[in-house]
Write a structure and sequence with these properties.
This protein is an alpha+beta fold. It has a single domain, classed as Thrombin, subunit H (Beta Barrel). The chain has four helices and six strands; from the N terminus they run ααββββββαα. A six-stranded antiparallel β-barrel has the order 1-2-3-6-5-4. The N and C termini lie far apart (69 Å). 17% of the residues are buried.
């Protein structure tokens, strides 16, 4: 009998909680002759773009595939992932096994991206608070 939590672990719901879109760099996953652009990534999985010209069809959902991960065309390492879903322009993969340097890279990428997003949100919040304190609103700016 299969545990329900094991099914939840492989769902995209868990991955969405900590996923980030890599900004300022190109992260790609390659297998055989195919190279797929990373659309978003987390410590437990990745969504890959299917818009590249793939020479071989992707495996069925649930299948394992080995990928080589690179950032800006510099190889980071290897990862084995299980295909979770495929949509028209993307496919979702859960990491099953990865080299330590890949795990470290992904953790650092996710953390740095989250820090940048938190800083931006903090700056926007401070700006809004200052506008409220000074009585500046968008309608006041339009009236001027």
């Amino acid at each position: 009998m299969e545990d329900a939590s094991a099914i939840h672990y492989e769902s995209s719901e868990r991955r969405e909680a900590v996923r980030v879109i890599p900004n300022g760099c190109s992260v790609q996953f390659s297998n055989n002759e195919n190279t797929f652009r990373c659309m978003d990534i987390s410590v437990s999985g990745v969504a890959l773009s299917l818009t590249s010209d793939s020479t071989t069809p992707l495996p069925q959902n649930g299948s394992l595939t080995a990928f080589i991960v690179d950032r800006d065309e510099i190889i980071i390492g290897k990862v084995i992932a299980r295909k979770i879903y495929q949509q028209e322009e993307r496919s979702g993969w859960a990491f099953i096994q990865a080299e330590e340097r890949v795990l470290t890279f992904v953790e650092e990428l996710v953390l740095e991206t989250q820090k940048i997003a938190l800083r931006q949100a903090s700056l926007e919040r401070k700006k809004h608070e200052e506008e409220m304190l000074l009585g500046i609103t968008e309608s006041n700016e339009l009236d001027a």
